[in-house]
Write a structure and sequence with these properties.
Blueprint (H helix, E strand, L loop, with lengths): L6 E5 L3 H12 L15 E3 L5 E5 L5 H6 L5 E5 H7 L4 E6 L5 E7 L11 E4 L2 H10 L5 E4 L6 H4 L5 E6 L3 H5 L3 E9 L1 E6 H6 L1 H19 L2
Parallel strand pairs: 1-3, 1-4, 7-8, 7-9
Antiparallel strand pairs: 2-3, 4-11, 5-11, 6-9, 6-10
The structure holds phosphoribosyl ATP and magnesium ion.
Phosphoribosyl ATP binds next to helix 1, helix 3, strand 9 and helix 6.
């Protein structure tokens, strides 16, 4: 019988890694070195058949879809923006929670006229405004969206909001929630078939870990 290659789980540094590691630990999985401080991009675990792949948050879906990783953890925002038809997403991990929101100057109305909206979530934003019959002019940015209204480049932004502190610090206010966001476990479709037993076991273990965590 051929020796099966280890399963690979794609994670991004920052809050997703921070909040996924405790769940993995509940499943008995501990990285061989600290992924946050290590420069390695592939990190083994105490389980020979499981290793971690460290990628950018927005790169998790393509890695998993195209077989660079068997599994991954990605925000619903990232999945919605990427389009998740090519992936299975069997489990909501309930971590890295926030809201995807329309924001702008307090009391302004984004449903009137032809608002200029800056965002990195261009696909979600296009769909959202189109569904509401609003003819928005979209400006694609890669970060610090809050700046666009301050310099008069846009009237509104679509961004993730947690405490609201970033918006407030820049004279903006949350106006409407587009989606409640948390991170999901995603699985490569071929891996789900080929490595079904091992993938299923990990998904089930993580589901248990999420339940245990949430009942704390
Ligand atoms: O940072 P990088 O460009 O590498 O990638 P990334 O920004 O996509 O990754 P990361 O690690 O910042 O976020 C990963 C995932 O965490 C996101 O895809 C979300 O699903 C989730 N998440 C949860 C958040 C937040 N909360 C969050 N608050 N992602 C980003 N933020 C940012 C937000 O964009 C804004 O700049 O935090 C700021 C707002 O926070 P408050 O508390 O001031 O409202
Ligand atoms: Mg970030």
């Amino acid at each position: 019988m051929p020796i099966s290659r280890p399963l690979t789980l794609a994670l991004s540094k920052g809050r997703i890694l921070e909040e996924t590691l405790p769940l993995l630990e509940r499943c008995g999985v501990v990285p061989e070195e600290d992924p946050e401080s290590s420069r390695r991009l592939i990190i083994g675990t105490n389980r020979q058949d499981l290793r971690l792949l460290i990628v950018r948050a927005t790169d998790v879906p393509p890695y998993v879809e195209h077989g660079g990783a068997d599994l991954g953890v990605a925000g619903r925002d990232v999945l919605m923006e990427y389009g998740s038809e090519g992936l299975y997403d069997p489990l909501d991990l309930g971590i890295a929670r926030c809201r995807l929101m329309v924001a702008g100057r307090p009391g302004t109305d984004f449903t009137r006229g032809r608002p200029r909206v800056a965002t990195k979530f261009i696909n979600i934003t296009r769909r959202y405004f189109a569904a509401r019959g609003i003819q928005a002019e979209l400006i694609k940015l890669y970060g610090s969206m809050e700046l666009a209204p301050l310099v008069g480049m846009a009237d509104f932004i679509v961004d993730l909001v947690d405490t609201g502190g970033t918006l407030r610090a820049n004279g903006l206010a949350p106006l409407e929630t587009i989606e409640e966001i948390s991170s999901r476990l995603v699985v490569n479709k071929a891996s789900m078939k080929i490595s079904h037993r091992r993938v299923r076991a990990l998904v089930d273990d993580l589901a248990e870990a999420v339940k245990a965590q949430e009942s704390l």
